[in-house]
């Protein structure tokens, strides 16, 4: 997935993972994350991905949100209760960034220092590691904004929130923290290619939103003052408030006078998750499968077509006819539609389950007499793909069970930081013959199942399947 300066999403790189010491907050039990303003209960409900999102956008109803606002228009939710404000302040503060400077933060990778001057972005980054004294100078003297990339790598409660959000959306969820001094603006007017949820954590921030010039934009871009017109929204966020706006919404933000500094958290999702992206993913395998059965797709195209020398040939009409025929077959369920690259990208890059304990096989080893269930269902996807083994025979389709249990929280949304072998092992997951697909779907679709009821031809196959899943920490005996 593509990265850009504002909402840092996964990108291709070979940056080395830096193991960092845990902060005090990291050493606490994940189930009892400390709040800095006493033992205030979290206003968020973590029982399920659905309940988390419901509590995140309260008092707005989830159904109303997706009907009236999602991908349509901005939403500002004012939350004046003290418990929500205390909780938001505990998620990240300026003092947290100051203490994290001792953890080996680096410019560009972890921190950007920016300021908008006369509608232009000025980058004030140094080289190498970040020093707290320099950041303080940037804030006080330079009036610059500190952009901290992917704080969920360091803060347990953000890991907890974003892991649930990734389960809810079935898409990557990244975050950035922005700290801006008073009477200052970090970034010029621009739009992003992600859906944006903003939580105000400290101080106040004034947001100007404008009508999109590119609705549901597929890439990040700056916009000139001449093109954006008058703002449609002029909003001041207070601590605890939430602001949502769709991708493509032009925006700029500044800290008002009289406010020492503003800290806000940007949660971003749905980058490259459009119908167009799905078509790009499924079409190659769809055409490949159809070509095996449709002679017309295997017929040679006219001579010299690539040279543009086939006079009078209506190529577009011929291609349109083939696409219509393919669409008709898709509606009947043949051939099967398979998404592989998007699934792999999501599973490889997403957060692991929220836990500080190493995930190992749980409970007793399964036997044919046992009732079993899948663990971490929302962290598992099943794909049907070519076996990837090089043979002289026809390509064989196999089933892959991909999961994110071994993903590294430290590298979440920071690009491909894995050693190539680790990356390959994690991305491939478990491989089974195509005959195991129905049994795996059984386990995915039910809460519990007797091993003996798995739809596999032999007892040996049934036992082999559950043992493989159990060894990978994906199955538990009830």
Description:
29% of the residues lie in helices and 21% in strands. By secondary structure, it is an alpha+beta fold. Strands 1-12-8-14-5-4-2-3 form an 8-stranded antiparallel beta sheet. The two termini are 39 Å apart. Residues 1-8, 10-38 and 417-422 have low confidence and may be disordered.
Record keyword descriptors for this entry.
478 residues; alpha+beta; 4-stranded antiparallel β-sheet; 20 strands; 21% strand
Mean pLDDT: 88
Main sheet: strand order: 1-12-8-14-5-4-2-3
Alpha carbon gap, first and last residue = 39 Å
Provide the structure class.
Answer: alpha+beta
Contiguous low-pLDDT stretches (5 residues minimum) are 1-8, 10-38, 417-422
Rg value: 25 Å
Could you give a short account of the major beta sheet? 8 strands, antiparallel
How many helical elements? 14
The shape, in one word, is: globular
Strand content: 15-25%
Quick summary:
The protein is of the alpha+beta class and 478 residues long.
Question: How do the strands and helices of this protein lay out in sequence?
Answer:
Blueprint: H1 49-56, H2 62-68, E1 75-77, H3 82-91, H4 94-100, E2 111-117, E3 120-123, H5 132-140, E4 145-149, H6 156-169, E5 173-181, E6 184-185, E7 190-191, E8 195-202, E9 205-210, E10 221-222, H7 225-228, E11 233-237, E12 242-245, E13 250-255, E14 261-269, H8 275-293, H9 295-298, H10 315-332, H11 341-349, E15 371-374, E16 380-386, E17 397-403, H12 420-428, E18 430-433, H13 437-445, E19 449-450, H14 459-471, E20 475-477
Antiparallel strand pairs: 1-12, 2-3, 2-4, 4-5, 5-14, 6-13, 7-10, 8-12, 8-14, 9-11, 9-13, 15-19, 15-20, 16-17, 17-18
């Amino acid at each position: 997935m593509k990265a850009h300066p504002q909402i840092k999403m996964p990108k291709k790189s070979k940056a080395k993972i830096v193991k960092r010491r845990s902060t005090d907050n990291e050493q606490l039990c994940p189930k009892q994350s400390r709040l800095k303003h006493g033992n205030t209960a979290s206003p968020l409900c973590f029982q399920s991905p659905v309940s988390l999102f419901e509590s995140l956008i309260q008092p707005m109803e989830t159904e109303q949100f997706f009907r009236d606002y999602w991908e349509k228009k901005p939403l500002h939710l004012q939350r004046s209760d003290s418990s929500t404000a205390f909780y938001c302040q505990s998620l990240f503060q300026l003092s947290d960034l100051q203490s994290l400077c001792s953890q080996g933060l680096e410019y560009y990778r972890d921190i950007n220092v920016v300021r908008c001057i006369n509608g232009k972005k000025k980058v004030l980054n140094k080289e190498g590691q970040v020093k707290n004294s320099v950041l303080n100078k940037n804030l006080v003297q330079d009036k610059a904004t500190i952009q901290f990339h992917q704080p969920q790598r360091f803060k347990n409660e953000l890991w907890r929130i974003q892991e649930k959000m990734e389960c809810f959306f079935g898409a990557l969820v990244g975050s950035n923290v922005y700290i801006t001094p008073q009477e200052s603006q970090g970034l010029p007017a621009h739009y992003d290619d992600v859906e944006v949820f903003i939580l105000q954590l400290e101080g106040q921030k004034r947001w100007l939103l404008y009508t999109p010039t590119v609705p549901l934009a597929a890439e990040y871009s700056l916009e000139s003052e001449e093109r954006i017109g008058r703002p449609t929204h002029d909003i001041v966020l207070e601590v605890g408030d939430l602001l949502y706006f769709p991708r493509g919404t032009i925006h700029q933000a500044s800290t008002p006078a009289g406010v020492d500094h503003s800290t806000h958290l940007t949660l971003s999702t749905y980058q490259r998750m459009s119908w167009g992206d799905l078509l790009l993913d499924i079409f190659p395998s769809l055409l490949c499968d159809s070509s095996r059965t449709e002679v017309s797709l295997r017929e040679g195209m006219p001579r010299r077509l690539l040279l543009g020398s086939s006079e009078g040939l209506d190529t577009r009409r011929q291609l349109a006819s083939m696409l219509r025929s393919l669409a008709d077959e898709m509606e009947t369920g043949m051939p099967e539609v398979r998404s592989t690259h998007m699934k792999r990208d999501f599973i490889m890059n997403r957060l692991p389950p929220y836990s500080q304990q190493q995930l190992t096989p749980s409970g007793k080893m399964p036997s044919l007499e046992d009732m079993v269930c899948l663990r971490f269902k929302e962290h598992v996807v099943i794909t049907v793909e070519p076996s990837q083994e090089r043979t002289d025979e026809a390509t064989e389709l196999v089933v892959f069970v991909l999961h994110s249990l071994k993903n590294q929280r430290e590298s979440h949304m920071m690009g491909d930081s894995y050693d190539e072998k680790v990356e390959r092992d994690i991305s491939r997951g478990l491989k089974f013959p195509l005959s195991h697909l129905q049994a795996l779907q059984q386990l995915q679709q039910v809460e519990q199942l007797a091993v003996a009821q798995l739809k596999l031809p032999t007892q040996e196959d049934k036992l082999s399947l559950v043992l493989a899943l159990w060894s990978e920490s994906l199955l538990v005996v009830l």
